[in-house]
Amino acid sequence: MATSSAFALAAGCAVTGAAWAVRGRSSSVFGPSVWRGDSNRKSIALTFDDGPSASTPQFLDLLATYRVPATFFQVGSNVLRHPDIARAVVAAGHELGNHSHSHLNFALKPASLIERDFTRSQEVIHTETGAKPVLVRAPFGVRWFGFRRMQARLGLTGVMWTVIGLDWKLPAQAIADRVLSHATPGGIICLHDGRGTEENPDVTPTLEAVRRIVPSLMEAGYHFESVSQLLCQKT
């Protein structure tokens, strides 16, 4: 019985360890990855995944109102669908990151597929916007074998987050409460201006949450930076 219990415990630990390697915010098992900047500076980075979408211009208008920079991790296939909007993000002074071309869950996928997919996205983003990403965020935060080689070849640093808003399933106030309660100096906030590769996603809850998050953090004394700016100051 003791042997069976020990085996079950070891198996459970192995599963937990594997899950952390794949999705743990501080894990660099599958490639260089960061999840926060310098905690001694009251700066914070706002990031958006899954765009561009037809609603992205509304986020740009809101960010412009507060003169807040953000980092948009874009999906290559969405960039091809909305190239003008992707370019508008760059024109507004925001940073672009690579969020894959097809927005797959890459767990258990071949390393060759991972490299092809992110390479395609890198090429599309660069061609359509003129911006060459230096940051990458895996869809669903899931990394796998092949990410390290892909990141090295494309010159990309993996970025996770300090807090994720769960904005694809929560109402606006719950999103805002979640983000504000977990905001810390040097933090990276993960929200979404799209929903995977959906053509016309409803991102109204996220937009409304941002209307509450940004002024609240500014009133609390936070300074917004792009992820690259935040990481350049990291000690």
- As for the number of domains, it is 1
Integer average pLDDT:
93
The major beta sheet can be summarized as: 6 strands, parallel
State the CATH superfamily name: Glycoside hydrolase/deacetylase
The count of strands amounts to 9
Outline type: globular
Rg, rounded, reads 18 Å
Strand content: 5-15%
* Unreliable stretches covering 5 or more consecutive residues: 6-15
Number of alpha- plus pi-helical segments: 9
CATH architecture: Alpha-Beta Barrel
What do we call the CATH topology?
Answer: TIM Barrel
Give the helix level as a range of percent: 40-55%
Could you characterize the architecture of this molecule?
The protein is α/β, with parallel strands linked by helices and 235 residues long. The protein has one domain: Alpha-Beta Barrel (TIM Barrel), CATH 3.20.20. The protein is 46% helix and 15% strand. The protein has 9 helices and 9 strands. Strands 2, 3, 4, 7, 8 and 9 form a 6-stranded parallel beta sheet that branches. A 3-stranded parallel beta sheet has the order 1-6-5, with no helix packed on it. α7 links the parallel β7 and β8. The longest helix is centred in the first third of the chain and has 22 residues. About 4% of the residues have low confidence.
In short:
The protein has helices at 2-23, 56-66, 76-81, 83-91, 111-129, 147-154, 172-182, 204-219, 227-232; strands spanning 33-34, 43-51, 71-74, 95-98, 135-136, 157-159, 163-164, 187-192, 223-225. With 235 residues, the protein is an alpha/beta fold.
Q: How is this fold's topology laid out?
A:
Layout: H1 2-23, E1 33-34, E2 43-51, H2 56-66, E3 71-74, H3 76-81, H4 83-91, E4 95-98, H5 111-129, E5 135-136, H6 147-154, E6 157-159, E7 163-164, H7 172-182, E8 187-192, H8 204-219, E9 223-225, H9 227-232
Parallel strand pairs: 1-6, 2-3, 2-8, 2-9, 3-4, 5-6, 7-8
